[in-house]
Amino acid sequence: MENEAAAALINVQRGLWVACLTAQTLLVGKLCYERLLRRYFWFAVYLTAEITWGVILVQVDYRMHAYAQLFRIYQTMLIVLRFAMAAELYERICEHFYGIGRFRLGLAAVIVSLGAVISLVLFHPSIGGQWAFPQTLVLVLWRFQTGALCVASLLARFALHQFLNVRPPLRPNVRAHWTLTTLYFAISAMSGMAVLLIGGGKGILPVNLTMLAADLACLLLWIGCFRKNGETIPRVSPTSSEQQAYQEAVMEAVIKEVEKLVKERY
Questions:
Q1: Backbone angles phi, psi at 27, to 5 degrees
Q2: Which positions ≥6 away from 230 have C-beta within 8 Å?
Q3: Which pLDDT score is estimated for 225?
Q4: Does the structure show a pLDDT above 70 at 73?
């Protein structure tokens, strides 16, 4: 009976995986249809890699050694593409903060470093003999990276909105992409944490099912949110003279600090 239940869960997992691949294909098509491919190029490349390798892996028995080898290559590629996708999103966000200049690079270094430290504390390797499997290292890196990027995205929101106290109107596409990317990384990070707490075995199947269902929901929301007119900055009521003066003073102080650092370095 247990074997039948496990087989049923595996079939459901495969079905959700195929549904996610289908949604990713539709999302790339939506980016092309709305002529947003150049704006979100690395996001499209990341999705295309997921689709390509997903189609290959879904046809291979997960219990075979060949699957582990292919999975290792697949995840290694995605580690690089996730960074590129996150960097592209950060640039799209910073476009709304006029005058941020090189300060955005220093800010990115700080928030990524903090995210990495927090993720290292939460996802430190604790998997014993599983190091014998060829895919273990990339799984550890995947958990660490998704956790770090999720924390970095949350810290970026705090730093840009709360620390600088500047809230420019964001393009609807960028705002939705920022929120969904954070959620997408959070889903992966939480599923990784759940696997570490469970310790492997058959308990991983419900975690994978939950992760795939949540990923599918994110992908469907992405499809619905991306629109060509979503690249237009919405109109907002003018800020008060006091708030505008404060924002200008903050940005001037930031620019002066960056110029000081550049002069000291060069």
A1: -65, -45
A2: 171, 172, 173, 176
A3: 93
A4: yes
Work out the burial of residue 23: count CB atoms within 10 Å of its CB; fewer than 13 is exposed, 13-18 middle, 19 or more buried. buried
Give the predicted TM-score (pTM) of the model: 0.80
Each residue of 42-80: b (16+ CB within 10 Å) or e?
bbbbbbebbbebbeeeeeeeeeeeebbebbbebbebbee
Instruction: Give how far Cα 38 sits from Cα of 41, 44, 45, 84, 181, Å.
Output: 5, 9, 11, 14, 18
What is the model's pLDDT at position 108? 85
- What does the pLDDT read at residue 130? 47
Which residues contact residue 104 at a Cβ distance below 8 angstroms, ignoring those fewer than 6 apart? 90, 94, 97
Q: Which two tokens stand for residue 238?
A: 């003018």
pLDDT average, residue stretch 50-56:
92
Looking at residue 129, what is its pLDDT? 44
Determine contact, residues 67/90, Cβ cutoff 8 Å: no
Per-residue confidence band for 256, with pLDDT thresholds at 50, 70 and 90: low
* Domain 2-234 CATH (choose: 1.20.1070, 1.10.3470, 1.25.40, 2.50.20): 1.20.1070
Could you read off the pLDDT of 137-184 as tens digits, one per residue?
777 788 888 888 998 998 888 877 766 666 778 899 999 999 999 999
